[in-house]
Design goal:
- The protein is α/β, with parallel strands linked by helices.
- It folds into two domains: about 1-40 and about 230-420, Rossmann fold (3-Layer(aba) Sandwich); about 70-225, Glucose-6-phosphate isomerase like protein, domain 1 (Rossmann fold).
- It has 18 helices and twelve strands.
- It has helices at about 10-15, 20-45, 50, 55-70, 85-95, 105-110, 120-130, 150-170, 185-195, 215-220, 225-245, 250-265, 280-295, 325-330, 370-385, 400-420, 430-440, 450-460, and strands at about 1-5, 75-80, 115, 140-145, 175-180, 195-200, 270-275, 295-300, 305, 310-315, 335-345, 390-395.
- The strands form three sheets. Strands 1-12-11-7-10 form a five-stranded mixed sheet, sandwiched between helices. A five-stranded parallel sheet has the order 3-2-4-5-6, with helices on both faces.
- The N and C termini lie far apart (about 55 Å).
Length: about 475
């Protein structure tokens, strides 16, 4: 189960200047209630694609059909994708499988090793493919791209396809699964021509909202994650945030706190700090969801607004020894969202040693989970003492159900935030210029206008080269 605790963002705890007063929350609640009504109306009208995913049996079934075909027959699974086609895969694997998963033997692991190639980095690609070596015949590549035109993914796919074709001959298509638009597009057409197995990228779901679709479910299920429990947890949260009155609704309260901190309290930076290494992937997933959804130049009416809280990730307790100095004594421009785990997947206890060293006596026989959660509570207290607001999202345990619930909670909160900021939370127009510029530099566009302009911009001016 997921719970939200927000007392440490109130004026009672961090003061009137940086905390939320009862009157401010009451005022925001009217806006949040209207936002909630608007988002639910979109949901009921069938216009909120991600909201359907927890109960889409067809997507779940197509994933499990392919899992049944490949699991037990492949030793390695390599995902080719970027952004929303990769971060969800990484988040689920990091949260729900052991940190040593890829180091376990094939029999003990029970599923393929998972590698996610999410950047056009020659070392990342080259080292991973070289490492597969003789296991290539039993390696499955899942290329994820709605259109097939995303430059980074397309380049990696072309490399892999040619390598498989040379090494495996006519059977190379058996080692590729394409997750793409089922109706058309470059990757769809190649998949049909070559004969790949395919999975669906939903047409009504943006990449950053797609983790609970075949985009994220296939690699999870292949690696032994219970996707039925994952979807059940998301469905439970979906019902909770849809039907619960705003005052007791975790998504509404979280959206209200984040909106007030951004719009009224001078807190444009929203840090997510999990106190669990397993939840670091979810923090990275959150950064794309929050940044790409809410960072917008124009409102829905076309006015210039330049809005968007900046998402940052940290790790407790590691970053208590790096970032917390800034967060406590630097500019008071941040809301800290702490992720707390009540029951960790594994426990370790400090041994009863060094009895004669008084300064280490407090650590003897202590559970590491108690140490970590004490560090979280200490950080919470230290932030409050410095008038720095924070909220906590509590996991009873890191399970498929709780992870599914967290994912849907943040997706719905993002929709509410889009309403509160009066922007379109589902497009990403600013991403397109970079894509076009990359294509121009590589010769995609016959026109040389953009490429010439970029090259002039990129030329090093000796006056500024030191």
């Amino acid at each position: 189960m997921i719970q939200l605790y927000w007392k440490n963002a109130t004026a009672d705890v961090v003061g009137d200047e940086h905390g939320i007063s009862p009157s401010e929350m009451a005022s925001a609640s009217e806006k949040v209630a209207a936002a909630h009504k608007a988002v639910v109306a979109q949901w009921d009208a069938g216009n909120l694609g991600y909201a359907k995913l927890p109960t889409r049996r067809d997507y779940r079934d197509e994933v499990m059909e392919l899992v049944g075909r490949y699991r037990g027959k492949v030793t390695d699974l390599v995902v080719l994708g970027i952004g929303g086609s990769a971060l969800g895969n990484i988040a689920l694997q990091t949260a729900l499988n052991p940190v040593t998963y890829n180091l376990l033997g094939d029999a003990k692991r029970g599923g393929p090793r998972l590698f996610v190639l999410d950047n056009a980095d020659p070392t990342l690609i080259g080292d991973t493919l070289a490492m597969l070596g003789r296991r290539l015949k039993k390696t499955l590549f899942n290329v994820i791209s709605k259109s097939g035109e995303t430059a980074e993914t397309a380049a990696m796919f072309m490399i892999v396809r040619e390598m498989l074709r040379k090494r495996l001959g006519d059977k190379f298509a058996d080692n590729i699964v394409a997750t793409t638009d089922p109706e058309g597009g470059v990757l769809h057409d190649i998949a049909e021509a070559d004969g790949y197995a395919t999975l669906t990228v939903p047409g009504d779901v943006g990449g950053r909202f797609s983790v609970l679709s075949p985009v994220g479910l296939f690699s999870a299920a292949m690696c032994g994650i219970d996707i039925d429990a994952l979807l059940a947890g998301a469905a439970r949260m979906a019902e909770r945030v849809k039907s619960t009155p705003p005052a007791k609704n975790p998504a509404c309260v979280l959206a209200a706190v984040k909106y007030l901190m951004y719009a009224q309290k001078g807190k444009p930076i929203h840090v997510m700090m999990p106190y669990s290494n397993r939840l670091t992937g979810l923090a990275d997933w959150y950064k794309q969801l929050w940044a790409e959804s809410l960072g917008k130049e124009t409102s829905r009416s076309g006015q210039k607004v330049f809005v968007g809280p900046t998402p940052v990730s940290a790790l407790g307790a590691t970053d208590q020894h790096s970032q917390i100095q800034l967060y406590r004594e630097g500019p008071n421009d941040k809301l800290i969202v702490l992720l707390e785990v009540e029951n960790h997947p594994r426990e370790v206890r400090v041994p009863d040693v060094f009895a004669g060293i008084d300064k280490l006596a407090y650590l003897r026989k202590v559970k590491i989970s108690k140490l970590l959660n004490s560090e979280k509570q200490a950080t919470e207290y230290a932030l409050a003492r410095s008038h720095r607001p924070s909220v906590t999202i509590r996991f009873d345990a890191i399970t498929p159900k709780s992870v599914g619930g967290f994912i849907f909670l943040y997706e719905f909160t993002t929709s509410l935030a889009g309403e509160l900021l009066d922007i379109n939370a589902y497009d990403q127009p600013a991403v397109e210029l970079g894509k076009k510029a990359t294509g121009a530099l590589l010769g995609l566009d016959d026109s040389t206008t953009m490429s010439d302009e970029i090259r002039k911009f990129a030329e090093a001016d000796a006056e500024y080269l030191v």
